[in-house]
Amino acid sequence: MRPPRVSVGMPVYNGERFLRPAIESVLTQTYGDFELIISDNASTDATPDICRVYAARDPRIRYVRNATNVGAARNFNRVFQLSTGEYYKLANADDVCAPTLVERCVAVLDTHPGAVLCYARTTLIDESGAVMSEYDDGLDLRAASGVQRFRAAMDRIRLVNVFQGLLRSSILRKTRLMGSYHGSDIMLLEELALYGQFREIPQRLFFRRLHSEAGSSIESPDRRMVLIDPSVDHDRRLWLCRHPVERIASIVRAPLAPGEKAVLIGLVLRFAIGDRSSLLGELTDRAKRTVRRWARRRLAMAGEFLLRRQ
Question: CA-to-CA distance for 248 and 253, rounded, in angstroms?
Fold first, then answer.
């Protein structure tokens, strides 16, 4: 059997509260040639039971479960790597979309081979589904130049709702996917802009749910990092300093002329210089944490030495 044209990936961790409407919004799409892959990140709530019930009802659903919680970033990557479709859509386990979203995005990508991503405008909703406000991503990037698209992406990306549209799987596979650090979703979107156009559908067909349990609601960087990847040593991570490094690595890998790469690398370096106070602050904080760790180890060693002398 041929693979479906569209793969919908739904990474989830303890998502029982909003999981049913999220799955239903995928199953009620007017475009039916899709697979829905749900990657459960070792949930401890009713998520597995909900997923198994839906998978038993609809053969288009494939439910997989990680043995341990590998973090949001690696779960995002895993569910994409399991996909087989020509086009790929991310579907968060707490958001919903209008029934025509996939159909409309497929039509745009079929018509415009230079586009790597198509998305619809966003409406922000609350926990009960009531409308809070409209949100415009402003990422309709139709410039032929990768330099112009990347520059615009750096200036405009705030929320990353456009991932909820449709992407060309062949292009997404050329990227390094999601990294285990703060802002890696933004870095991935910027990298995609190097490969082709982003096209916006002017209707509001995506509904992003804002609630207290959402990752975007976590203000503490340390707590947010636990969600992204619980296996890393968060005190040793330099996520702000990593951004220019990741941007330059994406530019070097991209299918651009050497002159275009030089222009973009210069842009990234100028941006980093302009943000030097934040970068230096992160380096200073890292140095202080390292000194405190060293001091604690030395005190512990001294204490053990004194105990042995007694």
Answer: 9
